[in-house]
Amino acid sequence: MKTPIKILAGLLIAITLSACAAPPSATRSAMPEAPIMGRAQTDVTIDSFTVSVPRSLEVSERNLYYPRGDIVWRGDPMGDRHAQIQAIVEAGLRNAAPRIKGTRPVRMDVQVTRFHALSEKARYSVGGVHDIDFKYRLVDVQTGRQIAPTKDVSADLQGLAGQAAIASDARGVTQKSRIIAHLTRVFIDELTTPRGHQNADLGLLQAINEL
Q1: Are 137 and 164 in contact (CB under 8 A)?
Q2: Global pTM value
Q3: Number of domains forming the structure of the chain
Q4: For 17-65, what is each residue's pLDDT tens digit?
Q5: Measured over all CA atoms, what is the biggest interatomic distance in the chain, rounded to whole angstroms?
Q6: Which residues is 154 bridged to in the sheet?
Q7: In 3D, which of 42, 27, 26, 48 has the Cα closest to residue 107?
Q8: What is the helix (H) or strand (E) element at residue 138, kind and residue range?
Q9: Cα(156)–Cα(159) distance, integer angstroms
């Protein structure tokens, strides 16, 4: 039986028509694809990294205001969405690495657990929230040992809507480039500040995404 909260959330979704809407090298995925079980580590430098986007994550190509699925992505041509998301996260890591200047070389293993951006229908009308979640661990390059508990990170980003999205595309600031820049900041925060990245409070649409 549905709880009153989930019934209300469903009504809100229907009413608002919302959407969740040499540098270091990437190596073969070292992060296990099973769920992994955090705090920020500073004084590290990224020697290498891996990015895993498990094939168990469900992709939705439905052009709805809120398509159900773990991966919703329209910023690349139709294709292998898992590989496209992997490339986006790798780009964010490559951009972040030169700005993380600690003394301890580590390998950063990242596993994406959700990447729900905006469908076409949502982006060019009501907008929404890019709901991005991942886990990561840091492995000491010299010892091969993980140096802290694996950490879960929520990295949500406000999506652009309607004319704002169209104008942004016209300037060359695409949905993809915005997300890469955002992930770059998230990785820098995680590895240079004691508390790590603090997820933004994006209001009602973000709260519905979490139900």
Answers
A1: no
A2: 0.79
A3: 1
A4: 344 445 566 665 556 554 444 456 779 999 999 999 999 999 999 999 8
A5: 56
A6: 133
A7: 48
A8: strand 128-140
A9: 9
